[in-house]
Write a structure and sequence with these properties.
112 residues, alpha+beta
Amino acid sequence: MPKVSKNVVDKHLRDMIFADLFETNETAYDFKRINDRQYGIILIDDNNEKRYCRIPVIVAELREDMTAEELMQSEIDAYNQKQADKAEKAQAKAEKAAKDKARREREKKENE
């Protein structure tokens, strides 16, 4: 069986935990208290390996320049912007690859 990539495995584990915490009325997982800042659980990943997953709670510092709501929204906006930038770069990369492939094929035909 081929190994599933780390990014796919990690995303699936996060999705499982978030679904359990936020999409159901009762949690199916037995989270253990690790310390005063986080809980953890052992789950089996897509490669049939045991994985330790932690859920930390980070309390943001009070800021004089923005409210808690503004800080939260700024972090959401920053994340969304990074995702949009990443998608734009991926699209540009795919377009360049297609152009380069077409150019190589054209040069190959010209050299024949």
